[in-house]
Amino acid sequence: MTSDTPFDAAERRDLEHFTELARSLTVADTHLEEPPVDLWASIEAALQDESPAASPGASIAPGSVAPTATVTNLAEGRRQPERRLGRVLLGVAAGLLLVALVGVGLIRSGDSTDPVASVALSADGIDPLGLGLDGTAELIEVDGGYEIALDVSSLPEVDGFYELWIIDTDVAGMFSLGTVNEDGRFAVPAGVDIADFPVVDLSVEPIDGDPTHSGVSALRGVLDI
Amino acid sequence: MASSPGFHVVDDVEAAFVSGGSEALKRAYDEHGSLIFTFCRRSVGTDHAADLTQEVFLAAWRARDSYSPERGSLGGWLVGIAKNKVIDHFRRQGRRPTEAGEVTERDVAPEDEQSIEAMADRMLVGEALRDLPPRSQRVLRLAFFEDLTQQQIADRCDLPLGTVKSDMRRGLVRMRRHLEAVR
What is the pTM of this model? Predict the structure, then answer.
């Protein structure tokens, strides 16, 4: 579905259902309590007792993960401590509807120098060339659009060149942001909604005149936007 | 636009849990322990909450092959296990009504499976909202709590209507994912 198509019946039902649920939230539903500090140790001990050979560190059981599935890590930024502020609502009477607290900013209003989003790029699960790179990609808002600021540990010589892409999560489409010779900023094409293409991918391209993605990636990460 | 070989995009805690490597269960516990413990405490009271939470994570580890990200979020899946453990707990106790004057520290009555389910859904919605990326979170909060239409949200945030629709769509997909695994 494109961004301009009207909501269908299923989406409208979802919206109604979640609106009703959201409006029924109380502080008790969102104020999470930490378990006792010794609980994890107890769980770990119970696991050891059960099957000393099969600890949480055991290898994958057969059939549990399709070997061809590649998983990509989402932005670490989602787990930053300040996001957990939403979990601790101090000094508010139980039963107070969450609706009344909507003004408490759980969304940080960044200033214009902060990146909108950033992600650690990883070679895990990809990197057929074994380059072992790492780096970060930041989404920066600029006048009239966005840029991706790329910072890579190194760019070893390859048979070909490096290219930066933004890809949608359905892997139905992608845009090339251009050739990468060094760290720098790469403009997102005007009119492209970056939130629809959050996967940042650094590929190694052969010099063959074919503009499509080679299928050989060196780094990848998903912007949380 | 071009196309390329497919890959799944999943949460890093879910990915670790699926791969079953070292620290996998610990990461799931770090991420979702408070949610499960709070749900258990509100269901069965303080005395039994820690034991039940332990049972949930042990059961989750034993059943880890049955979890896949396609089923929904890991948090939702864990709450589903917790819900079943709570119901079993009450059945074992014979659903004794509370004695007069007893402080239960529970938010649900033992015989009321429906309110246990409703509480699970609400807590997951809260979790899902917290977990949304900033743009979807802002749009959905305005829709839920201020009852604005998409056009009103677009006007208020000075965004194109299409962008509001996309952000809302994306947010609803994520929220649905949090709740479908609990079934």
Answer: 0.65
Yes or no, beta carbons of B3 and A193 under 8 Å apart = no
In 3-state terms, what secondary structure has residue B17?
Answer: helix
B126 to A83: CB separation less than 8 angstroms, yes or no: no
Whether B165 and A5 lie within 8 Å, measured CB to CB? yes
* Candidates B18, B29, B107; nearest CB to A64: B18
User: Which residues, given as ranges, of chain B have pLDDT below 50?
Assistant: 1-9, 100-102
- The contacts of residue B75 (CB under 8 Å, 6+ apart) are B31, B32, B35, B124, B127, B178, B181
pLDDT tens string A110-138: 334 567 888 888 887 788 888 989 899 99
Q: Is B32 helix (H, G, I), strand (E, B) or coil?
A: helix
B166: which chain A residues are within 8 Å (Cβ-Cβ)? 3, 193, 195-196
Q: Note the pLDDT of residue B38.
A: 96
pLDDT score of A4: 64
Q: What is the DSSP string of B93-160?
A: HTTPPPPTT-----SS-TT-HHHHHHHHHHHHHHHHHHHS-HHHHHHHHHHHHS---HHHHHHHHT--
